[in-house]
Amino acid sequence: MSRAVSVRNLTKSYRRGRVRALQGLDFDVREGEIYGIIGPDGAGKTTLFRILATLLLADEGTASVGGLDVVKDYRAVRRCIGYMPGRFSLYQDLTVEENLRFFASVFHTTVDENYGLVKDIYSQIEPFKTRRAGKLSGGMKQKLALSCALIHAPRVLLLDEPTTGIDPVSRKELWDMLERLKHRHGITIVVSTPYMDEAVLCDRVALIQNGSFLRVDTPQAIADSYTGRLWAVKTADMHRLLDDLRGCPAVEAAFSFGETFHVTPCKGTTPQDLEAYLAAKGHSRTDIRPARATIEDCFIALMGNATSQKEGTNR
């Protein structure tokens, strides 16, 4: 399968080298796939997207989009990509319709010529086409931004945290749209998000932390790779349970998962040990059961391993 994006040894630093945003990234994105870059704020996601969108130069390494070098062929790259930055960047004083027509004209096309590509998305905000973009809700702004990114029929979509700050219904709608763009039009989508529940919607994901990829694979393969013990814990008082779990010396990690907390116990810790600890903290009706690992559990475990290796190297 052809590569839509190819990155080799991509490195970027800020503050005269004191802050390493990207540390020698190597990866390929296949044509027609949804490739997720999953990680917390400050992990390097936006820096990577700005380099791929030809808005920022890397210190070292190479990157190509659609077979075009992002430095040597930057003009051609800009014609073949649609880019949505993390912050809403359309013209807030222009109306919905004016923004769409403007971005079509920038790429020497028209809304009518490519309307079929954006129809499913734009039709949801078309009733508000005379409203200024700055007056739209968060979800409507993202739909307009996605329409503007698509109006010139790009081969690759670069979406930097497109669902941050919008409501759950709009998040689901946007991901449904991405799935349709992939299947109906064969568009390659590279999308970043801090939300682990969105990782399972991608064909493959790269878990990024401190400018490095910790793991690249399908969401299911990453979840299945978890080898440690994992418990789902509930008590009668869930409000203070997380703080008590994280303060427990027999717990390596704990985070909210649905109506429970997923807990990674230290080696040798038994459910009875944890139950006794929580009882001493005033918890009652404690329920501790084995849990099936998710991609979030794997990410936390990988982050812990990376931190341990770094600390060991620095000693």
Describe this structure in words.
With 315 residues, the chain is an alpha/beta fold. The protein has 2 domains: 3-223, P-loop containing nucleotide triphosphate hydrolases (Rossmann fold, 3-Layer(aba) Sandwich), CATH 3.40.50.300; 229-292, Alpha-Beta Plaits (2-Layer Sandwich), CATH 3.30.70. It is 35% helix and 27% strand. The protein contains 10 helices and 14 strands. The chain has helices spanning 45-52, 74-80, 96-106, 111-122, 138-150, 168-185, 219-224, 241-246, 271-280, 295-314, and strands at residues 3-14, 19-30, 34-38, 60-65, 68-69, 81-84, 156-160, 188-193, 204-209, 212-217, 231-234, 251-257, 260-265, 287-290. A 6-stranded mixed sheet has the order 6-7-8-3-9-10, with helices on both faces. Helix 3 runs parallel beside helix 5 (138-150). The longest helix is centred in the last third of the chain and has 20 residues, at 295-314. The chain starts with a strand and ends with a helix. The model is unreliable at 308-315 (pLDDT under 50).
What is the fold named in CATH at topology level of the largest domain?
A: Rossmann fold
- Low-pLDDT segments: 308-315
Number of helices: 10
What is the average per-residue confidence, as pLDDT, rounded to a whole number? 92
SSE-based structural type: alpha/beta
Strand content: 25-35%
The CATH class of the largest domain, by name, is Alpha Beta
Gyration radius, in Å: 22 Å
Helix content estimate: 25-40%
Tell the overall outline: globular
Tell me about the biggest sheet? 6 strands, mixed
- Termini Cα gap: 44 Å
Order of helices and strands: EEEHEEHEHHHEHEEEHEHEEHEH
In the CATH hierarchy, the architecture of the largest domain is: 3-Layer(aba) Sandwich
Classified in CATH, the superfamily of the largest domain is P-loop containing nucleotide triphosphate hydrolases
How many runs of DSSP E, i.e. beta strands? Answer: 14
- How many domain regions? 2
